[in-house]
Every structure is written in C-alpha cells, then in structure tokens.
Amino acid sequence: TDSDVTLIGLGLMGKALAGALLGAGHRTTVWNRTAAKAEELVAQGALLADSADSAVTASPVIITCVSDYASLQQVLTPVADGLGGRVLVNLTSGDSAQAQEMARWTEKQGGIYLDGAIMAVPPTIGTAAAVILLSGPESAFTTHQSTFDALGTTAYLGEDHGLSALYDVAGLSMMWGVLNAWLHGVALLGTAGVNASTYTPFAAQIAQETVGWLAGYADQVDSATYPPDDATLDTHAGGMTHLIEESERLGVNAEMPRLFKALVDRAIAAGQGGSSYPVLVEQFAQPRATS
Ligand code: NDP
C-alpha cells in the first residue's frame, strides 16, 4: 500500500483529523469530493488520491468523516470492492442503527468496521482534550490504536457497533440536563437582581456534589434495589413542589420542574414513594429482566 491511513472527507472536521495524522508522522492519503480542500494538507505532506477508489485501496485503514450516512453511502457504494481486507473507521455522526447497518454492509464487502463518534470541535483534534469514542471488533481497535491515538484521547467501548452513537447521544442528554438546570437557576436568581456570574459558583458546586452520587446510584440501578439511605422519593416530591410554586410566583418558566414532578408522581402512584431517587429509571427505561 501507498500509505498507512486514508482520510475521506475534508470538511472542517476531516481536515483537522488529517492534519493530526500527518502531524503524528503517519503516511496519509486524502480524498475529498471537492479536491481544492486538500491543497493545504498536500502542502503538509499528504498524498492526494485521484479518485475515491484509489483512496480506499491506498491504505489498510480508511477513516471517513462526511456530513451524514447518505453522503457516506454515495462515496463508498461505487468503491465497495476495494474495502475487502481493510478496516473502515467511520467518524461521520449518526445513530446506532445506522452504525450497525454500516457494519453489516462493510462486512459483506469483506471489510472490518469500527464506528466512531467525535466528542470535540476541530481545533482540539490531535490533543488529549479531543475524545473519540470507538466501537466494533476489539482486535481492529487494538491493532490500529496508535493511529487513532494521533486524533485525540480514544475510548474503546465494546464490540456492539452502535455503542459509540449511544454514548454520544447519552452524553448530549447529560450536557443539556446540566445546562437547562443551570439556566433555570439563573432565571430564578435573576428575579432577585443576582447576575449569572454571581450565582454560578454555587450552581457548579451543587452540580459537582450531585455528580458524586452517580456511582452509588448506578449500583442501585444495576441491582434494581433502591434503599432510601439519603432521601425518599416522597421527600423529593415535596422539594419539587417548592421549586414549581416559587418559579410560577416569580414568573419564571416552570415547565422543567413540572416535568420532573410528573415523573416522580407517576413513580409514587406506582407505590415507590419510599424508595431512593434512582427508582425513577423505571419511568425512562423499558422494564427489563434483573438477575
Ligand atoms: P463539513 O460540512 O465541514 O464537511 C462535510 C464533508 O462531507 C465535506 O468533506 C463534504 O465534501 C463531504 N460530503 C458531503 N456530502 C457528500 C457527498 N454526497 N459525497 C461526498 N462527500 C460529501 O462538516 P464537518 O467536517 O464539520 O462534519 C463532518 C462530520 O463530523 C459530521 O458527521 C459531523 O456531525 C461530525 N462532527 C463534526 C464536529 C464539528 O465540530 N465540526 C464535531 C463532532 C462531529 P465537499 O467538501 O465536497 O462538500
């Protein structure tokens, strides 16, 4: 082969990925639908493939980063034959079903598939701050880990190709949960003339304290036992009522605490008022068999 690794898709993210591979000394072939976007990388030593087909066959590892799965299929379908015996690492954003479907398709061509999610913006690519989630066959990950490490901090999640996409969206849920709770507090304190910067150290302290509970609560969820060592759901419900009433009285949007309360009320109606908070997982998850 001509190079160690091929990068297909040189948008904002693809360019950063290719730059990091070159910076780490990997012989890198690049291809982009709009060839002009490769110029800077070629000046840095990248090899420019003259077609998607020669890009695929240039390296044992092919990293793709295009807009979406429809674009990915447009690029790869005509060059599918070339994937045999190679490792395709797709960092295009998508959902878990798309990743699993892409894995089946790649395996049908005789290739090996790893799916990835990039938890970073382009300027951080190539630094430890850029977290790249990868899932699929572990042997493919370990064989090529030194290549992936050039892109940032890689985390291997498991054999199920859908895991990268699932961690990706779960991470977003966590992020928006924290951000919306913080903004609700900013609005509450704003009614008393306290600005966001003044309130925020307190908010950060509470968020950190709450994060500290997660590992213990995860054990409760995994064992489906919810001993109320700290506070019962009934007690939480009382606090939520204060939050809703205070918000409404001050003219602050109360939709979020009302949603929290609706979930808790349902669990209490199901007889779980004496359990600890994470029993609420049953309002989110499908019922499942416990061992
Ligand atoms: P850009 O819009 O900058 O680049 C899109 C890339 O896809 C271009 O290389 C474009 O080629 C290519 N492309 C689109 N459609 C086709 C097609 N039909 N055939 C061939 N190539 C096509 O997007 P980004 O680089 O920012 O994002 C790429 C992926 O990375 C996305 O899935 C995004 O969600 C993900 N991502 C991006 C992050 C970011 O901060 N930018 C963060 C985390 C993930 P052309 O140049 O010819 O148009």
Automatic annotation (TrEMBL):
| Pfam families listed in its UniProt record | NAD_binding_2, RedAm-like_C
Entry keyword set = Oxidoreductase
Q: What GO MF terms are annotated?
A: NADP binding; oxidoreductase activity
* Gene3D superfamilies linked: N-(1-d-carboxylethyl)-l-norvaline Dehydrogenase, domain 2, NAD(P)-binding Rossmann-like Domain
The answer to whether the entry has keyword Calcium is no
Q: Which residues form the 6-phosphogluconate dehydrogenase NADP-binding domain?
A: 5-155
- Mitochondrion listed as a keyword: no
Give residue ranges for domain NADPH-dependent reductive aminase-like C-terminal.
160-285
Q: Which InterPro entries match?
A: 6PGD_dom2, 6PGDH_NADP-bd, HIBADH-related, HIBADH-related_NP60_sf, NAD(P)-bd_dom_sf, RedAm-like_C
In terms of PANTHER family, this protein maps to: CYTOKINE-LIKE NUCLEAR FACTOR N-PAC, OXIDOREDUCTASE GLYR1-RELATED
Family according to the record = Belongs to the HIBADH-related family.
UniProt-recorded name of the protein: NAD(P)-dependent oxidoreductase
Look up and give the organism this protein is from: Mumia zhuanghuii
Taxonomic classification, please?
Answer: Bacteria, Bacillati, Actinomycetota, Actinomycetes, Propionibacteriales
